[in-house]
Every structure is written in C-alpha cells, then in structure tokens.
Prior knowledge:
The chain has eight helices and two strands, in the order αββααααααα. A two-stranded antiparallel ribbon has the order 1-2. By secondary structure, it is mostly helical. α3 (about 55-70) runs antiparallel to α7 and α5 (about 85-105) crosses α6 (about 110-145).
Amino acid sequence: MKKLDFLIIITMCLIGAIIGWITNLIAIKLLFKPYEPFRIPIVNFDIHGLIPKRKGEIAKSIGNIVEQELLSVNDILIHMLESDKKVALLAIIKFKIKETIQKKIPSIIPSGFIGLILNYIDEIIEQEGEKVISEIMQNIVQDAGSMINISKIVEDKVNEFSMEKLEDVVLQIAKKELKHIEILGGILGGIIGIIQGLIVMLLQ
Length: 204
C-alpha cells in the first residue's frame, strides 16, 4: 500500500468519524430542541424537538406504565392490609378507646367496674377487630380504586414539568447511553470512511 493511499484511508476514516459523531450529536439535540416549533422560511418546514412535540403522549404513557406495571392504588392499599399493620392499628384503637373511657366515665364509677369494661372491650377487639378492619379496608380499596387515578396524577405531574426540567431528568437518567450513541456514531462513521477509502483505491 502506497503512503498516499494510506493517507487517503486515514483521512476518509477521520472525516467519516467526525460526520458520524456530529450527526448523532445533532440527532440527540433534536430530541429536545427547539422547545417550540421553528419554521424554516424558504422551505416552509417546521422543526420541533421530538420530546416537546410529543410531551402529552409521553406523559400519558409514563402514567399508564406507572399504574399498570409499577404501582396501583390497589397495591398501596393491599400493602396496608398486611397483618403486622393490622396489629399496630388494633393496638392504637385499643389505646384510644381506653384513654377515652378513662376520661369520660365519671369518677364515682368503681375502678373495678371500669376494669371489667376495659377487659370486655379488649376481648371484643381481639375477636372481631381484625375482621372489621379488613372489611373496612376492603371497602376503601374498592372505593379508592375508582376514585384515585394514579396514571392521571403522574401524567399531570409530567405535563407540569418545564421542558428544561424534563430535559434535565432525561439526561440524568440516560446521559451515559446518549454519550455511547455519540461515540458509536463516530465509530460507524470511521468504519464507513475506511470502506470508502478502500473503494477509492480499488477504482484507481
């Protein structure tokens, strides 16, 4: 291989790498910018960042994914129905009832009688309390499922983000991957440049 041929291949490789890197860099920038539609005068063509243009659709999709795949109202409330939380809730109910009774019952009532009342209440709560709480929570789950729309809440929150904030969030999450895309563009551009250089040599 002549020195000139080698220089041609190297040059084509560098040019291809630069073009590939810049192309991918511009493509990534166009994901976000411009935030508002910009019309090119002569060709009457609008340029609008992909994410700003489809912000509403993206927000809706994120909301649906969060509710369907990650977290639903039922998941939250069912978690509250776990036995250890019922035990803690029953303990609080017992304490509040005893505290109220001791405050409200007149002092002329014998303490032994008050003790019997408190013991009776304890027995009732132990026997029926968990069942009652479960029934109440089940009703809450059914009502909350129809009243609370997590996907809509998430969608509204995403739509409230300014484009600068949304861009920052995406870049924080995917910064490394986007950088890899830039580098990959340079590598592929360089390979294409080498192939073009070899073709030029063969056609000489």
